[in-house]
C-alpha cells in the first residue's frame, strides 16, 4: 500500500478544485512560455539577420552590438522553449528553471527597450505572467 496521499485515489489533491487550478496555471505558464520563447527567437533572428534594423536612432546607456544582442535573445529563447517543454511535461525541475530563464528574458528585454519598446514591453508582460503562474505552482502546499 502506498503511503503517498496523492497517488491518484479519489478525493486526493488531483481531484480538488485547488489541484485543478494549479494544473491550469502550470499549463498556462508552459504555453505562454512557448509563446514568449517564440518572440525571443524571432527577435534574435531579426537582429542577427539585419542589425541595422534595431540600431537606428538609439542613444542609450547600453551600447551593444545588435548582432551579439540578437544571439543573446536567440539563446534565451531556445532555453525558454526547452524549459517550457519540461513544464508542459510536468517536470518539477522546470518550474524553478522556468522562473530563472524567464527572469533572464525580462532583463534582456529591459535592456533592449530603447531599440524596440513596444515589443519589449509585451514580452516583459508575458514574462511577468509566467513568473506569477510558476510561483503559484511552487508556493502551493499540498494538503
TrEMBL record:
Domain annotation DUF7144: ranges: 26-137
What is the source species? Nocardioides caricicola
Q: Which UniProt keywords apply?
A: Membrane, Transmembrane, Transmembrane helix
The name this protein carries in UniProt is: DUF7144 domain-containing protein
Q: Record's Pfam families?
A: DUF7144
UniProt KW Oxidoreductase keyword:
no
Where are its TM segments located? 27-48, 68-88, 93-112, 118-139
Q: Does the keyword Nucleus apply?
A: no
